[in-house]
Write a structure and sequence with these properties.
Layout (H helix, E strand, L loop, with lengths): L1 E3 L2 E10 L9 E8 L8 H15 L4 E7 L3 H9 L3 E12 L2 E11 L5
Parallel strand pairs: 3-4
Antiparallel strand pairs: 1-2, 2-3, 4-6, 5-6
InterPro entries: Acyl_CoA_acyltransferase (IPR016181), GNAT_dom (IPR000182)
GO molecular function, one term: acyltransferase activity, transferring groups other than amino-acyl groups
Keywords: Acyltransferase, Transferase
Amino acid sequence: MAERAGEVVGFGALSPYKERAAYRTSVEDSVYVRRDLGRLGIGRAIVGHLLETAKDGGFHAVMARITTLSEGSIALHTQMGFELVGIEREIGRKFNKWLDVALMQCLLHEKG
């Protein structure tokens, strides 16, 4: 959680990527930063903390699913070492519109 002047301005969380045992070494991040406080390093601090937490927890990969309209979040994740690995077409629906979702991945440990 990120605070500014005693007010919550952002937060992040890690959750299991999938329930099946084969995916137990991967997690998915969720990141939120108050829209009017973008580009102040809050998101970078949150994602950095999540990556360290995942690495310390022995996870191998962190996944991120981001609507393709969220260019700032995609740019942030790219800056933090995530790579675009796919686009899920019309997988979500919000405000009566279909949404494409970018699937991004950050590998925390060397392959092996």
